[in-house]
Design brief:
It is a single chain. This protein is α+β, with helices and mostly antiparallel strands. The chain folds into 2 domains: 51 residues, no CATH class; 141 residues, OB fold (Dihydrolipoamide Acetyltransferase, E2P). Helix content is 25%, strand content 29%. It contains 5 helices and 11 strands. The strands form 2 sheets. The chain has a 5-stranded mixed beta barrel. A two-stranded antiparallel ribbon has the order 7-11. It is globular and about 50 Å long. It starts with a helix and ends with a helix.
Length: 208
């Protein structure tokens, strides 16, 4: 198998999921280094978009290290590694929405982003992948020094357990237990009491 074809096959296996179509972008930087990404090229560089359909994809290896290059909010980050750059949506959790140009955002949204940034920004992490979401982001648990960061955000009261469909091979038990514990302590988002609103509900009321 030619090297170029072998690289493409590897990329599609890593980024795609069962019965899904994934967008992959390819570009070459000023040093002649070829890059692949599922979120487009950085800094406005021109990229060639490719689409591929596959029947299955293995999980990203737990031993693979990725550098967290950006934290978008309390449950979404961007990472680099294995010649890839892509966004990760932290599976099983839902942090308060930061809003946008039209919306102020939810209480604790900036704190959730700040804490997540402190935990993993600029650090090497491991990913346990559970496919991709409808926005083509990798769904994964993030581990830093053997700490489950997804679970840590729930335990600190900075995210709730995701109130939607979870991957079939995912065990939500530890997350639900952590949420029940932190709700009893009324920490973080749960200190808001009746004023608390699920991010899922907030998104429906404040479409972008």
């Amino acid at each position: 198998m030619r090297p170029a074809i072998q690289i493409l096959v590897t990329i599609f296996l890593v980024l795609s999921v069962s019965q899904a179509r994934c967008d992959v972008y390819r570009w070459t930087d000023e040093n002649g280094v070829r890059h692949f990404s599922n979120v487009g090229s950085p800094y406005g560089k021109k990229a060639t978009q490719m689409r591929e359909s596959v029947n299955s994809a293995p999980k990203i290896s737990d031993k693979s290290n990725f550098l967290v290059t950006k934290v978008f909010d309390g449950d979404t980050v961007q990472v680099q590694g294995q010649d890839l750059e892509f966004r990760v949506r932290m599976v099983a959790i839902d942090a308060p929405e930061t809003g946008g140009s039209k919306n102020k955002g939810q209480p604790y949204s900036q704190k959730a982003k700040k804490i997540l940034t402190q935990l993993i920004q600029g650090k090497k992490v491991r990913l346990k992948q559970y496919g991709t979401d409808r926005y083509n982001r990798i769904l994964a648990e993030i581990f830093s020094q053997d700490i489950n960061i997804n679970l840590a955000m729930v335990r600190q009261g900075l995210a709730e357990v995701y109130r939607g469909r979870l991957p079939e091979n995912f065990d939500p038990g530890p997350y639900k237990k952590a949420e029940a514990d932190v709700r009893r302590r009324r920490a973080g988002i749960w200190s808001l009491g009746k004023a608390y609103k699920s991010p899922k509900t907030w998104r429906k009321e404040n479409p972008r």
